[in-house]
Fold this protein.
Amino acid sequence: MPLRAASARMPKMSRAIQHVFSDPKLLARAFTHRSSGADNNERLEFLGDSVLNCVVAQALLERFPLAAEGELSRLRANLVNQQALFEVALELDLGASLKLGEGEARTGGHRRPSILADAFEAVVGAVFLDGGYAAASAFVTSNLGARLGAIDIHAPAKDPKTRLQEWLQARRHPLPRYTVVSISGEAHAQHFDVECTIDVLGLATRGSGTSRRAAEQSSAEAAWLQVAGRP
């Protein structure tokens, strides 16, 4: 379906987003998955990802003026990751308006977390292009505001593997691989060495412990210390 025809079906979604589009074709494009054609939402998703991170970073700076950079990065990763954006997309019922190719539609693409999270970012990009930063910021804070408000900066930090996973997911990177490098010692007192590899960053770190789980956490902590300050 041409974008012009698709845009005619968007008034209801435009109201849900609470932004009246000057160019409705932008909103139609935001809901067009790449499986449906070349004129899809991937470029809007790319833009929306950056705008979303900027808006959330600004909100965190304002709410936690004394927080260090690493802590702010952790909080942002908790807010801007696939699962969180998927949940927001469900709340907005974005899946009902998605335009998918036949294969994606048949296999449940309207409910797939990655597709819905990407669609939310594409909508952010569309709002930004249509209404500017203020409009995009209003849309993001309207939909993430409750999650921002629920943050407890004094809550116990998540374990290293979880922190690292959320940081990677927030940037659409593949998850790390954990490989047992060696096992030494007697059966009742074994010692594990594990390597954590993040191919997309060209990063590999080692950790050790008295169990595989402990060694994985140790290697993840080493990786987290290297990436936490990155944008």
Observations:
- The longest strand covers residues 177-184.
- Residues 33 and 230 are 30 Å apart (CA to CA).
- Residues 113-149 form the longest helix (37 residues).
